Amino acid sequence: MGMSVTISAAAAEDAEQIFKLQYLAFQREAELYGNYLIQPLTQSLDSLKGELATDTVLVARLGDEIVGTVRGNVDEDGTAKIAKLCVHPRLQGHGLGARLLRAVEEALASPGTTHRFRLHTGHKSESNLRLYRKAGYVQVGGRTASDGVQLVILEKEAKDPTDFAVSA
Predict the structure, then answer these.
(1) Which of 76-85 are b and which e, b meaning 16 or more Cβ less than 10 Å from the residue's Cβ?
(2) Which residue among 1, 46, 83, 96 has the highest number of C-beta atoms inside a 10 angstrom radius?
(3) Other C-beta atoms lying within 10 Å of the C-beta of residue 96
(4) Helix count (H) and strand count (E) of the chain?
């Protein structure tokens, strides 16, 4: 009998598992850019613990193992900023990233307060770009990250909180 993946809010005690997963999951991105100094790989555990205390952080669990995570927050202008969506390499390509994206959108959506969702990814990250475009995001700009990676900034307008369907 197989276990199903559940998505829930992260707890403070999840910090170390999230930290290790993030490091593992972003190796492919680092390899793609030939840059192992990308922010998800250089973030400190203390910094991640700070995000757990202030941001909306979700985890996907398979039993007791955290196999995916995403975080975000809403700024004073009503922009929900989504970051560090990652899935364990052995589970990538099975729709878990789309489920996490939908879940964080739902968690950050607040009628009358959240006006748009914004996220970014590297310009060479085709699978990420496909996922985000499929979820309704469009490119609104770009910038160079402090680690030198060219980022694509994508947004979508917030709608009714029940209208966050992502096709798998």
Answers:
(1) eeebbbbbbb
(2) 96
(3) 21
(4) 6, 7
CA distance 99 to 147: 29
Helix extents (H) in the chain: 15-25, 27-33, 39-42, 45-54, 96-108, 126-134
Cβ-based neighbours of 8, under 8 Å, separated by 6 or more: 58, 59, 61
What are the pLDDT digits (tens) for 44-80?
999 999 999 999 999 999 999 999 999 999 999 999 9
Of 120, 118, 116, nearest to 143 by C-alpha is 120
Q: Which residues pair with 74 in a beta bridge?
A: 80
Average pLDDT, integer, range 114-138: 96
| Residue in 22, 20, 38 with CA at minimum distance from that of residue 30 | 38
* Structure token pair of residue 14: 């999840």
Which one, of 100, 96, 101, 84, lies nearest residue 47 by Cα? 84
Find tokens 């910038």 and name the residue: 143
Task: Report the alpha-carbon distance of residue 6 to residue 53 in Å, rounded.
Answer: 21
Question: What's the CA gap between 110 and 159, in Å, rounded?
Answer: 10
